[in-house]
Amino acid sequence: MKNTALVLEGGGMRGIFTSGVLDAFIEKGIDIPYIIGVSMGAYNGVSYITGQKERTFKMFMDYIYDPRLLDYKRIFKGDSLLNSDFLINFMGKNKYPVDYDKFFESTKKFICVSTNCNTGKPAYFEKNGYPQKYFNRILKSSCSYPFLTDTVKIGGEEYLDGGIADAIPIKKALDDGNKKLIVILCHPKGYEDEPSWYLNISKLWYHSHPKVAEALKKRYIAYNGTLYFLDLLEKENIAFVIRPESMPLSVIEQDKVKLRLFYKAGYNKGIEECERLEKFLKTPSLI
């Protein structure tokens, strides 16, 4: 599977579909050497590299109702709605700790995508391109959903969710020399992003980071353009896309039944697509 990239979209709690797909990959021994992930996609990518099957799924099943993770009352205290510190530092170190030794010893290339708040452009953090002590802050920055969490400082710069600047980083994966892409999305075929009402307040909300406000207002255009490009890559046998049949979850979904079903849908889809995926990897692309 040389020169093959695994590209993982974010999607907040919708990313539990990706968790299911990757657990199927772990079970079936699908070993991809290059992983690039955004937000929840990056979080899932870590568990894939360490081979910790069901880690993300079990963690959210245990903590999704915990007010330390998500609590609307936090807004009235002047805090962010989603506590990314709890997500990365507590949940990732206690009951279901990340196997950091295995992660950093892995020869797989891993890139975590964040958005630089000063430029509004993507920042691509490579696994072994920075001191290990910064890893949690980098992962936290990629998972810092706009309007729901605070910015994250790394080396004097502030960062937010990578999905603002590069929600599906297929161009980066290709620029790095990959010839085949396996892309896992959280939305069904035919989905197109639309401008949301809350983006009208982005200029006010991010008044100290005008480039973030600008990127947020244009995000849906860039996102839909990437989907169009991805369709072309599929036709040329460069990209293999795995996506759900429907998208019944919200970004901050807390319904355990829905989360469990969406995870299972991802797992089943991953198992179902293994044979077709192996054929895709053996077939030359059209360019």
Automatic annotation (TrEMBL):
Motif position, DGA/G: 161-163
Keyword Transport part of the UniProt annotation: no
Gene3D superfamilies named in the record: Cytosolic phospholipase A2 catalytic domain
One Pfam entry name: Patatin
SUPFAM superfamilies: FabD/lysophospholipase-like
A single GO molecular function term of this UniProt record: hydrolase activity
Motif position, GXSXG: 37-41
Annotated catalytic residues: S39, D161
Domain of life: Bacteria
UniProt keywords, alphabetically: Hydrolase, Lipid degradation, Lipid metabolism, Plasmid
Domain PNPLA: 6-174
Sequence motif GXGXXG, residues: 10-15
GO BP term (any one): lipid catabolic process
Name of this protein: Patatin
